Amino acid sequence: MADVTMDKLISLSKRRGFVFQSSEIYGGLASAWDYGPLGVQLKKNIQNYWWKEMTQLHDNIVGIDAAIMMHPRVWEASGHVENFTDPLVDCKECKNRFRADQIDEALLKEKKCPECGGELTEPRNFNLMFQTHMGPLEDSGSVVYLRPETAQGIYVNFKNVWQTSRLKIPFGIAQVGKAFRNEITTKNFIFRTCEFEQMEMQFFINPTEDDKWFDHWMQKRMNYYHELGIRPSKLRFHEHGPGELAHYAKKAFDIEYEFPFGWKELEGIHNRTDFDLKRHNEYSGKEMIYLDDQTKEKYVPYIIETSAGLTRSVLMVLSDAYEDEVLGEGDERTVLHFHPQIAPIQVGVFPLVKKDGLAELAKDIEKDLREDFTTFYDQGGAIGRRYRRQDEIGTPYGITIDYDTKETGTVTLRFRDSMEQVRVHKDELTKRIKTEIANYKRGA
Ligand code: ATP
Fold first, then answer.
1. Is 195 in the pocket of ligand 1 (CB under 6 A)?
2. DSSP labels for 165-196?
3. Do strands 375-377 and 331-336 pair parallel, antiparallel, or not at all (unpaired)?
4. What residue ranges define each of the domains in the chain, with the CATH number in brackets?
5. pLDDT of residue 140
């Protein structure tokens, strides 16, 4: 199997409508991307899968959707105004800007630019939050930030949610939404962008149980990726050493994926202790104390955070799915092995030919399937080429309607990964495809 490269992913994404450069007709905006018809469906499918896994399947986890713009004091309390910075150096010659922690140490010591060899400035801390102004005045009193993480919207609503949903600790609050960071090194396509989406679940616990819950969520979150269909050999944990820990964290593990450019973080699992709630207690003057009505215990809960990138997950899923497969005799195909539960199109429907009523029959079958699956109807060109077009966008099942369908009511069901074909009665299709999705194993 040929290795997937970023060039291949970017080119396929553009060619087939997964991801486009933002404002492309104006030359593009660096590091901003738009999700096309297939990309948005893939992203939504991943989001829905996560949402179901993290809320619907639990009786003690609920969702919220908080505003992107929050009271500026939130970011003072959270420590972001003070600490959410990267050390940056500028080259006096070529004017390029770099993160000091990402430059070779020897070069940094010699203050030498990695691009042109020119002299570098001393490192300065640069805050990653985007600032804007709310209301008609552009003064310091009107400054607001675009949230750099979705988590704070959950923390400030901790009491609202706890009291209105009558949950008892341990319980969780989940949220999916946009976050913004003024990243300096935005490369690798949609891996690191200034505007991105996170899927976060904050789990509120009794502080004496933090290790137990941390381990629980570490395992759960790794299993989630396996169930999403990601190859286990491409996933691993990375523990943060003392120097790496964020200002709020007592313990942190990343789930990393082996991208075409190396092992990189996909999700962070953090023991944030009572840091955030205590700070909001202090800055807002509102008590953030939980009362256990059975034991009468009072405490500020600890929080175990699971924070995954949604847009980064799209890149991960694409990289993991991509294969240039050699089929023998000079024949090749590009295939995306998406798990059928997240494939943007689940079923392709093709009449063998347009005439003799086959197109009408195929359209009727497609219409029935739409209730349960995302479908795509294609009647153009040789059937082999139609299959390949669907392989390239990861459609796991293809259905061909031929002359036998008119006689016997059976159709051909083709499997993307194995390219095998079986005959199935059209009235059995929905049930059969549901069973196939439930039992899917990559390659079969
Ligand atoms: P990194 O070290 O890659 O900058 P981080 O440790 O700052 O990430 P967290 O603050 O833990 O990341 O954010 C949680 C998740 O949000 C990350 O695992 C990643 O999937 C996603 N994420 C963070 N920053 C970005 C970004 N600029 N673009 C896309 N996704 C991001």
1. no
2. HT--SSEEEEEEEEEE---S---TTTTS-SEE
3. unpaired
4. 6-73+148-318 (3.30.930.10), 345-438 (3.40.50.800)
5. 75
The three-state (H, E, C) secondary structure of 67-90, written as one string: CCECCHHHHHHCCHHHHCEEEEEE
Is the peptide bond preceding residue 396 cis, with omega within 30 degrees of 0?
A: no
Residue with tokens 């050999």: 233
Written as six digits, the tokens of 159 are: 């009491």
Share of the chain above pLDDT 90, in %: 87
Length of the chain: 444
**Residue 2: pLDDT above 60?**
no
What ligand 1 atom has the least distance to the C-alpha of 264? 3
Beta-strand ranges (E) seen in 192-250 are: 195-205, 235-239
Distance 287 CA to ligand 1 centre (A): 30
Rounded to the nearest 5 degrees, what angle is found at the Cα of 129, between the Cα atoms of 250 and 73?
Answer: 75
| Spatial separation of the C-alpha atoms in residues 73 and 144, rounded to whole Å | 9
| In the predicted structure, residue 64 carries a pLDDT above the cut 70 | yes
Q: How far is CA 71 from CA 76, 147, 181, in A?
A: 10, 10, 17
Q: What pLDDT, in 10s, does the model give residues 356-385?
A: 999 999 999 999 999 999 999 999 999 999
* 198 ligand 1 Cβ < 6 A: yes
Pocket test for ligand 1, best of 312, 315, 316 (most atoms within 8 A of CB): 312
Are the CB atoms for 186 and 194 separated by under 8 Å? yes
pLDDT band at 328 (very low <50, low <70, confident <90, very high): confident
Residues with Cβ within 8 Å of 137's Cβ and at least 6 positions away in sequence, in order, are: none
Tell me, using a 6 A CB cutoff, whether residue 272 lines ligand 1.
no
Residue with CA nearest ligand 1 atom 2: 265
- The average pLDDT across 288-305 equals 95
Residue nearest to atom 8 of ligand 1 (CA): 265
Rounded Cα gap, residues 157 and 202, in angstroms:
11
Q: Which of 31, 265, 276, 305 for mutating ligand 1's site (highest number of atoms within 8 Å of CB)?
A: 265
Two structure tokens written together for 142: 């009107």
| Ligand 1 in reach of 193 Cβ (< 6 A) | yes
Report whether pLDDT(113) > 70: yes
Under the banding of pLDDT at 50, 70 and 90, the label for residue 3 is confident
Residue nearest to atom 18 of ligand 1 (CA): 267
